[in-house]
Amino acid sequence: MDFNKTLIIWYSEHKRDMPWRNTKNPYYIWLSEIILQQTQITQGQPYYDAFVSKYPTVFDLANAQESDVLKLWQGLGYYSRARNLHASAKYVANELNGIFPNTYKDLLKLKGVGDYTASAIASICYNEPTAVVDGNVYRVLSRYFGIDTPINSTKGVKEFKAIATSLIDHQNPSDYNQAIMEFGAIQCKPRNPNCHTCPLNESCEALQKDRIDELPVKLKKTKVSTKYFNFIVLLSTDKQTVFQKRTNKGIWQNLYQFPLLETDEKLKTADFKKHAFIKTYFGDTPFEFSLYNNKDIVHKLSHQHLHTKFWIIEIDKLPQKSIPIADLKSYPTSILISNFIDEFFDV
């Protein structure tokens, strides 16, 4: 069976109509690929539409304020993607005169662009035969060839890239790459794949050997850590609050949040005023406080679970620089903070 030709034919009949599939403009393809990293199409497409609408060219994106880019990205997660997107837009606009790199090798020089994204852009926009390998491709190849090398191991990454490269259609790498990804997304799905209608079912190793549910193989992830976040929501009599930019590297860098007290375990109400952070923050200034949520709000990230409480403090005068409560929604924040603002404040 001609593996790549079969997939291209399947793709021509079954591909979903997506806006980024109606263009070869590298700016739009790059936008779609960055937005759809670790994101389902149904969630990512509204963000793609919003970015294209607000920043129709790479120059528009390059000239934007990072805070505006982060605000538009809000709710999509993995915010380093947005920061890298903005940095690369400025590089293309200012250093390359708005002209995107047109080879796989040069695309890798863009911040936030790795093997997969460079391969996708190079093949779709410039017809360079560079094979894409994403989660969908790993699944299709692992099942079809019966490969049980862990896909998230060093050996697996090299092995699957080599196989993908050997299979690519050199005459039509654009459609082939999109075909195998789309095939994994809607035909060879993680659960309950449509094997009975699959054009590759007669030669699929996993189907023949009843190993569909076993493949692909992944090494166990690093243990997820637990953290305890206590956000201090300050409310003054003149309707001001404190909202701070998170400058440390890691999650939510450059997003805004209420002052944060991170503890090793759950902070009890009886211990709140006694905590050194609170004493240092307020000194002898009297204040009243209440707990917004008695039960922790658990915010799950890929590598850590945040057990979160919001402590409400009413005070006559704020101890540091403040902003009007009415302006809170104009700042880029995490979805955790955004949801709290929506629920607690009438803004």
From TrEMBL:
Cofactor annotation comment: Binds 1 [4Fe-4S] cluster.
Catalytic activity: Hydrolyzes free adenine bases from 7,8-dihydro-8-oxoguanine:adenine mismatched double-stranded DNA, leaving an apurinic site
Transmembrane segments: none
Keyword match Metal-binding: yes
Cofactors demanded by this protein: [4Fe-4S] cluster
Domain called HhH-GPD: residue spans: 35-186
UniProt cross-references to Gene3D superfamilies, sorted A to Z: Helix-hairpin-Helix base-excision DNA repair enzymes (C-terminal), Hypothetical protein, domain 2, Nucleoside Triphosphate Pyrophosphohydrolase
GO biological process, one term: base-excision repair
Keyword NAD part of the UniProt annotation: no
GO molecular function, one term: purine-specific mismatch base pair DNA N-glycosylase activity
SUPFAM superfamilies, per database record: DNA-glycosylase, Nudix
Keyword line: 4Fe-4S, DNA damage, DNA repair, Glycosidase, Hydrolase, Iron, Iron-sulfur, Metal-binding
The protein's Enzyme Commission number: 3.2.2.31
Functional note: Adenine glycosylase active on G-A mispairs. MutY also corrects error-prone DNA synthesis past GO lesions which are due to the oxidatively damaged form of guanine: 7,8-dihydro-8-oxoguanine (8-oxo-dGTP).
PANTHER family found in the cross-reference section: ADENINE DNA GLYCOSYLASE
Family statement drawn from the similarity comment of this UniProt entry: Belongs to the Nth/MutY family.
Name of the protein in its database record: Adenine DNA glycosylase
Annotated source species: Gelidibacter gilvus
